[in-house]
TrEMBL record, chains A, B:
<dbReference type="Pfam" id="PF00907">
    <property type="entry name" value="T-box"/>
</dbReference>
<dbReference type="InterPro" id="IPR008967">
    <property type="entry name" value="p53-like_TF_DNA-bd_sf"/>
</dbReference>
<dbReference type="InterPro" id="IPR046360">
    <property type="entry name" value="T-box_DNA-bd"/>
</dbReference>
<dbReference type="InterPro" id="IPR036960">
    <property type="entry name" value="T-box_sf"/>
</dbReference>
<keyword id="KW-0804">Transcription</keyword>
<dbReference type="GO" id="GO:0000981">
    <property type="term" value="F:DNA-binding transcription factor activity, RNA polymerase II-specific"/>
</dbReference>
<protein>
    <recommendedName>
        <fullName>T-box domain-containing protein</fullName>
    </recommendedName>
</protein>
<keyword id="KW-0539">Nucleus</keyword>
<dbReference type="InterPro" id="IPR018186">
    <property type="entry name" value="TF_T-box_CS"/>
</dbReference>
<dbReference type="InterPro" id="IPR001699">
    <property type="entry name" value="TF_T-box"/>
</dbReference>
<dbReference type="GO" id="GO:0000785">
    <property type="term" value="C:chromatin"/>
</dbReference>
<dbReference type="GO" id="GO:0045893">
    <property type="term" value="P:positive regulation of DNA-templated transcription"/>
</dbReference>
<dbReference type="GO" id="GO:0000978">
    <property type="term" value="F:RNA polymerase II cis-regulatory region sequence-specific DNA binding"/>
</dbReference>
<keyword id="KW-0238">DNA-binding</keyword>
<dbReference type="GO" id="GO:0005634">
    <property type="term" value="C:nucleus"/>
</dbReference>
<keyword id="KW-0805">Transcription regulation</keyword>
<dbReference type="GO" id="GO:0001708">
    <property type="term" value="P:cell fate specification"/>
</dbReference>
Length: 187, 187
DNA sequence: TTCTTAGCACCTAGGTGCCAAGAT
DNA sequence: ATCTTGGCACCTAGGTGCTAAGAA
């Protein structure tokens, strides 16, 4: 999905947050290599604030502008991939997709969704936790690693601000086909 | 679902098996109590042959009759509940449902579905595996337990034989609403 | 003859942005 | 003013038994 993420990122990616929880589109997907095929790993995601600012969208200039200091943030939740834990061979066999992850703006959320502040910017992070066999010397290795893909940065919103983002979502998300003017397959 | 299982069982429950895999209806659901809330458990199901016979349905007498000795059976697969492993408190909090379990007649199935022989009778079994804390003396307790509910016995088929089973499936399975003559809610 | 398969219309379940109304 | 919510029509995805055709 990197090319699609890049396309969104150039416009300034926006992700909807709702009380009930909303999926990300594009979904965060990653391919891993170099794992020990027979060892157990947990893979997960979290979201860190890109900065300590609150934003608003200036329709006049068609761009995001700083609207003050960030609202108070709860300590971020961690989204464990539902297949965790699993063997390295399993993780490496196919692309790891976090398509069931949901974003919410409900501070009291009880469904384990990721809680974000609307009008704030976030950077998704991908984490791998290695559960070494008992025989190994843990002191010499990294048990916890994380990876950041800058093109997946986004601003949380409750309604899309940049109309070009809306258009790109409609054009590329299969679930939004009903809003397309013409079939992009015709191109 | 016990009353529904009983209703089917009185007629002689049939379950469809397909190459791609078919869900069971009714779904196998169970409630557990008495677990250690803080210990890990795995819960799972398997299916054992009720007998060593092959059956056919006699439309003449509207009943199942023995049609010979059972075909050779592969050693039965085990279906691990997708939430396994989890704490006792989690399992006891709500009904445990195996509604994603699928039955297939494809001996070469690669999707982890339960492989059954059509025209044979099976008894579902529910298993609980207890992972005791290291401090406990394992020798004195049962780590592996299983439970059988006789009313969940069924015959695997590739097409329904008993028309009354078909009618009861249509009347009680929400996905088969399209085949109903009238809305059962009207009763 | 009996059993099995694939495609079908009809459902459930839930993911889209839109829009109007409400909240701050 | 700006932000947020709930209901909506329109989709995807996949679970039903039916039917006709094919296989054993």
């Amino acid at each position: 999905m990197k090319s699609l993420w890049d396309e969104f990122n150039e416009l300034g990616t926006e992700m909807i947050v709702t009380k009930a929880g909303r999926r990300m589109f594009p979904a965060f997907q990653v391919r891993v290599t170099g794992m020990d095929p027979h060892a157990d790993y947990m893979v997960m995601m979290d979201f860190v604030a890109s900065d300590d600012k609150r934003y608003r969208y200036s329709f006049h200039s068609s761009s995001w502008v700083v609207a003050g200091k960030a609202d108070t943030q709860m300590p971020g939740r961690i989204h464990m991939h539902p297949d965790s834990p699993a063997k390295g061979s399993q993780w490496m066999k196919q692309i790891i997709s976090f398509d069931k992850l949901k974003l919410t703006n409900n501070l009291l959320d009880d469904n384990g969704h990721i809680i974000l502040n609307s009008m704030h910017s976030y950077q998704p992070r991908f984490h791998v936790v290695y559960n070494p066999p008992k025989s190994e010397d843990v002191s010499e290795m990294e048990v916890f690693k994380h990876f950041i893909f800058p093109e997946t940065k986004f601003t949380a919103v409750t309604a899309y601000q940049n109309h070009r983002i809306t258009q790109l979502k409609i054009a590329s998300n299969p679930f939004a086909k009903g809003f397309r003017d013409c079939d992009p397959n015709d191109w």
